[in-house]
Amino acid sequence: MKRKFVGLSIVGLVMLGLTCLSVEAAVLKHYYTFNKKSLKDSRGNGADLIIPVRLQQNLRNDGYYFLRPFDWPNTDLAFPGPALSSQVLSSDNYAIEIRVKLNSSSLVWWHKLIDPWNLDPEDNGLYLFDGKLTYYHRGLPDFGISGLDVIAPDTFVNILITRDANSNLFRAYLNGILQFEMPDPEGWAVFKRGLIWFFTDDYATYGGELVEGFVDWIKIYDGPFVPLYTP
Ligand SMILES: [Ca+2]
Ligand SMILES: [Ca+2]
């Protein structure tokens, strides 16, 4: 009995050790705070965020309102952004964390949160579907893979997505709780087309899936991790 207890303890310690390692293995490489209306990486490691000049009026001292432009779908304003060069992160092994508030209108039907393929007409990406985190790509059933929890409107939430290059697993977390896990052997969630777009949809669905809300910050890590925080 004692032997068994010791054995379990060692297993427990190893598991704890692995968990800690996996957390420590992911390093925060880029941190976009938007503070003082800055689009720069506060870690000094990366490219600036890109937002059309005329939409920079939606910057505040603590964040950015991503809103459907009033004269959408005119030219550059059809893509409110922000966008970011995909060079700033490992394309297939990463974590991206955002703190956002979402408008109630974005919690009904489809609205795209992150587009990994530079607005490719494939329409691939991380969406909200009826207020739940959802991944859509054409290899999936029509309604993609959805998470568990419906996001509350006008309330700050923490959204974390991770992709593990070893397992090819993509995971999405809401306020630290795993929402879904998606096998991704084909690399739909690999950032490989120049720009990553936040809060912007492509024209495959005529811009009707633009999302509206406010972003406090965006963090980019050099690898996946399991969140340990609580909201
Ligand atoms: Ca779309
Ligand atoms: Ca901020």
Q: Can you put this structure into words, describing what you see?
A:
The chain is mainly β and 231 residues long. It is built from 1 helix and 13 strands; from the N terminus they run H-E-E-E-E-E-E-E-E-E-E-E-E-E. It has one helix at 2-25; strands at 28-32, 64-66, 83-85, 94-102, 110-115, 125-129, 132-136, 145-146, 157-164, 169-174, 177-183, 195-198, 213-221. Strands 1, 2, 4, 9, 10, 11 and 13 form a 7-stranded antiparallel β-sheet that branches. Strands 3-12-5-6-7-8 form a 6-stranded antiparallel β-sheet, with no helix packed on it. Strand 7 (132-136) and strand 8 form a beta hairpin. The radius of gyration is 18 Å and the shape is globular. The structure holds calcium ion (2 copies). The site of one calcium ion (CA) has 7 residues, from strand 13.
SSE run? HEEEEEEEEEEEEE
Q: What ligands does this structure carry? A: calcium ion
Q: Approximately how much helix is present in the residues?
A: 10-25%
Query: Strand pairing plus helix content: what structural class?
Result: mainly beta
Shape: globular
CATH topology: Jelly Rolls
Summarize model confidence as the mean pLDDT: 86
Number of helices: 1
Runs with pLDDT <50, length 5+?
1-23
**Total domains, how many?**
1
Write a concise synopsis of the structure shown.
This protein is mainly beta. It contains 1 helix and 13 strands, in the order H-E-E-E-E-E-E-E-E-E-E-E-E-E. Strands 1, 2, 4, 9, 10, 11 and 13 form a 7-stranded antiparallel beta sheet that branches. Strands 3-12-5-6-7-8 form a 6-stranded antiparallel beta sheet, with no helix packed on it.
